[in-house]
Protein: NSE3 protein
Organism: Atlantisia rogersi
Amino acid sequence: EEEDSSLSQTPTRSQVQRGLDRRPQDQVNQKVSELVQFLLVKDQKKIPIKRADILKKVLPGYRDVSLEIITRAGRTLEQVFGLQLVEIDTKHHIYILTSSLTRVQGDNLHHRDNQPAKLGLLIVILSFIFMKGNSAKD
């Protein structure tokens, strides 16, 4: 319960900016990448993601800029993987990932029976490439 109350103390925009200015940009980008990886693993296991877990396991020492890092990770997930980071419980700050890709409807469905399998494989491959610093050998 104490941890939940500390999570609700949202830093102001100027506090976040000061926190970002104190850290090297590549350090913040590294934390964004680590958070994306963490979120993908949690989503693969179908485990709801708690902000408290994010702060404890991925962003210790980054509480002042955690919301900005979470926002950037959400943007990366959307742009790279077509996944949207959705806060499903605003009191306890619990997130899930949902697909933001449009579903194919109508007659095209029976011609694309293996599309979900291909999409799943594509997401795994893209995740691997992303986690390896945006490049992977054959």
Summary: The CA atoms of residues 32 and 70 lie 7 Å apart.
